[in-house]
Write a structure and sequence with these properties.
This protein is of the alpha+beta class and 389 residues long. The chain is 22% helix and 25% strand. The protein folds into 2 domains: 5-57 and 88-266, no CATH class; 272-384, Phage tail protein beta-alpha-beta fold (3-Layer(bab) Sandwich).
Amino acid sequence: MPAHARFAGRHGPAVLFLLVAAGLLASCATVPKNDVPQGFAGVVIPGTETAAGAGAPPRHTSKAERAEKTPQRTSKPKKAGTPRRATAPRKTTVTLAQGERSLFETIRSVGKSFGGNLVAMRGIGQKIVPPLSLHKTPYRRYAEALARGTGVMLHRAGPYYFLYPDERYAPLLDLSLAGQLPPRYDEMRLSLALGDGTRLFNALAMISNSLGVSLVADNAVADARCGEMVLTDVSLRVCLEALLQSARIQPGGITVHRGTSYVFFAMRGRTRPDTYLIGPEPAPGTPLAEAFVRETHLAMPRRVPRGAAMPVYEGAVSLGGVLNALSSQLGFPVEARGDAAQLPVNPFVLHGVSAREALDLLVGQWLTDEYGYSVEGAGVVIHAVQPTG
């Protein structure tokens, strides 16, 4: 199932529409654990801006609305890259007539037709929504009807509504990334739809590849599953908050490490060294020394051009299975020694980071400090840290 992305220019807002439905995993050629796909169907297809506004979830329009949107000859053309005004839930109305249906199916159907901003916590998507009949109902009342019909709670979290089971999960409402991310994450905008059960690493990789950012998480965080959601024209920061909230990640459960060109989400309490490099740097003036500081685009477990369709992965791939792709993209040989070859590498995408930062982010995925990398000859070897003394 294709999706659409819109990019309004280097300095304008970027808009992405991403759909990763739980059922899509069965229809797309997905990647089993420890296996790299030979052919797969991606779910993000970059597109160009159209009069209908590619990039936002589609909505049904009446004949009068279509006529109103048709440009007249006397109309002043809109400048390319002009930011769209954010769509708040209260601005959207919903017309719907359906029998009993699951919560995630209802959210997905309404999101596809009308857009809006609604996020469900992982684990409640299978709840049954009783028959609904709505006509031009304000989005807030639609969200309230879902909460009332399924017996869950509703919270307004900025531009979106959040559905969660009960007060035991109220701490999720305090999750905030304000002040922890690059300022431009408040300016970048996107529209996104995710299916219940989507792995967080898939969402981060697809957003990174489409928006040209670098979002990575350690394995404890990245393996979490997100809930059903639809977000329309929200900031990247708000989108990331919604992802973590839906995946039931507590506000005190993670630490955000922010580099010049990346954001790394780690399990709370886990220390992260400045680098996992063991031993000396590459000799000055050598090709490896130059490659270490050169900016790179890296996609694991295999190369994917920026903005191209991303595969949906079911799990991690072994380090030994990605060494060729890693070496090819970094521009120097990367090897694994001993049991390091069996370490799990979750899918991720990096933009504008140095090769050294890329290696640090790769090794940083693992929930142990027992591994690092060393310079050997013209390349790098990833291996266990040798005991001292």
